[in-house]
Amino acid sequence: MNDPSNELIADVFARGCDSRGVLADVSNKWGVLALVALGEGAYRFNALRRRVDGVSEKMLAQTLQTLERDGLVRREVQGAIPPKVEYSLTPLGGQVAERLRGLIDLLEGNLPAMVAAQADYDAERLATRPA
Asked: Which residues contact 116 (CB under 8 A, 6 or more apart)?
């Protein structure tokens, strides 16, 4: 019989909670972009690297390994010569990518307002800076 006091309770605000590490993996720049790109469909490594413009080969490989370890990405080696490797999302990865896509859509849809806010902020800081 399981003791309820031994059950894992996830709380991302708790320092030692494992969910905090996964959140960090998912929410870094390359994690977000890789997950959302894979939300469009499966990719081979080089095609995914082209889709995620600016990511280095090393960083993409590390990101994919981390997301695979977290259970969000599936790596499938296809039996060909030379072997082909394809990356896709797990069902959980698909749910995460869908929510990230919503966040990206929100940000892209409001980009003009955010750029204006940045300009206003910078102008205000410049105006109040001692000479």
From this structure: none
Per-residue pLDDT reduced to its tens digit, 85-117: 999 999 999 999 999 999 999 999 999 999 999
CATH code of residue 44? 1.10.10.10
| Six-digit token string for 100 | 């990230």
Residue 104 CA to residue 51 CA, distance in Å, equals 16
Structure tokens, 42: 């499966």
Supply the range of the domain harboring residue 94.
4-128
Question: Is 71 in contact with 93 (CB distance < 8 Å)?
Answer: yes
Q: Is the pTM of this model over 0.70?
A: yes
CA atoms within 13 A on the CB side of 12: 6
**What CA–CA distances, in Å, run from 101 to 36, 61, 68?**
6, 22, 19
Q: Which residues of the chain have pLDDT under 50?
A: none
Closest among 99, 81, 62 to 49, alpha carbons compared: 62
Domain count for the chain = 1
